[in-house]
Amino acid sequence: MEESSPVPIVTAMLVCDQIIAEQGTNKKSLIGIFEQVGALTFPTVMPRLSVYVRLLDAFGKYPFKLRIVNLKDETLLAEVNGEGNVQDSAHAAELVFNFMGFAIPQAGKYEFQLYTRDIYLHRVTMEVLQIQGGIPPWQQPQRR
Amino acid sequence: MAAAAAPVVKADFSPSGTARVELEKQEGEILAEQVPYAKPVSEVPVIVHLTSPTGPLQTRPSARQNKLLFGALNDPLYRLRRPIPLELSVEESEVVLTWAAADEFGYGANTGAALDDFGQTLRELYRRLHDDEPLGSDLLNVKRLLDEYIEPRTK
């Protein structure tokens, strides 16, 4: 991103199981959008995890950085760097991050933070829950 | 036992869209096997295989930065001409973001929450200062400063 490049804004940022891009149209299908995930034991590994980002006002080359942060103590879990080239500022640009074998050390809240050239753009949070007795909290019967 | 420093996993993706970081051993233990390596999908710009080190004995670097640039105005009517420089401090376990030039702040339990709060403060301040109400000299200076960073969206 050059100094004169506009600061893009993020109009959507979602975490899901998988993102499929259709050949030909390049339309994206987001499969299994979620904000909570359960695990029996920790550390655990998520076989697939994707982050979808939709940007406006972007034009030109941008270095993007996705930081994964443990919100319990704001420690850095991982950092992914890449570059995007937006050639048409009249339309939204899309970014897709696909992770495979993503390790989660403990239950808690985690945040995906998007930066370009060290400029904070947006964040999305994912909560990792400890499943008791094999039943995720959102499927356990409610007590009256 | 002293805590072992755990390197943060860094994965740069290549133009072909793939990168891979091997599983790391944790005190002789290997994390659960991943799914088989999938053929890269060329339409999707980024495929990252990564496994971050885990375990209570490991320490990780803090994600907090002393200085950062704010680019998340998130307003349908206004946009940033350029990012706003902020300084981060922690007061009584609360994250405080300071825009010293305008004497504006954002507070939150973590950096993300403080950034949200700062963005909200900024949007409200910009609207209030452009309300056609008469302003004192201090507020006029803040308005001029805001106009250097924020402009109305034209499309």
Structural write-up:
- Chain A has one domain (9-139): Immunoglobulin-like (Sandwich), CATH 2.60.40.2550.
- Chain A contains no helices and 9 strands.
- Chain A has strands spanning 9-21, 28-33, 36-39, 44-56, 60-70, 75-86, 93-104, 108-116, 119-130.
- In chain A, the strands form 2 sheets. Chain A has a 5-stranded mixed beta sheet with strand order 3-9-8-5-6, with no helix packed on it. Chain A has a 4-stranded antiparallel beta sheet with strand order 2-1-4-7, with no helix packed on it.
- In chain A, a hairpin with a 6-residue loop joins strand 1 and strand 2 (28-33).
- Chain A is globular.
- The mean pLDDT of chain A is 86.
- Chain B has helices at 111-129, 137-149, and strands spanning 4-5, 9-12, 18-20, 25-26, 29-30, 47-49, 58-59, 67-70, 78-80, 84-91, 94-99, 104-108, 150-152.
- In chain B, the strands form 5 sheets. In chain B, strands 8-10-11-12 form a 4-stranded antiparallel beta sheet. Chain B has a two-stranded parallel sheet with strand order 1-7. A two-stranded parallel sheet of chain B has the order 3-6.
- The N and C termini of chain B lie far apart (59 Å).
- Strand 6 of chain A pairs parallel with strand 2 (9-12) of chain B.
In short:
The complex is a heterodimer of chains A (144) and B (155). Chain A has strands spanning 9-21, 28-33, 36-39, 44-56, 60-70, 75-86, 93-104, 108-116, 119-130.
How do the helices and strands line up, and which of them pair or pack?
The complex is a heterodimer of chains A (144) and B (155).
Chain A: E1 9-21, E2 28-33, E3 36-39, E4 44-56, E5 60-70, E6 75-86, E7 93-104, E8 108-116, E9 119-130
Parallel strand pairs in A: 3-9
Antiparallel strand pairs in A: 1-2, 1-4, 4-7, 5-6, 5-8, 8-9
Chain B: E1 4-5, E2 9-12, E3 18-20, E4 25-26, E5 29-30, E6 47-49, E7 58-59, E8 67-70, E9 78-80, E10 84-91, E11 94-99, E12 104-108, H1 111-129, H2 137-149, E13 150-152
Parallel strand pairs in B: 1-7, 3-6
Antiparallel strand pairs in B: 4-5, 8-10, 9-13, 10-11, 11-12
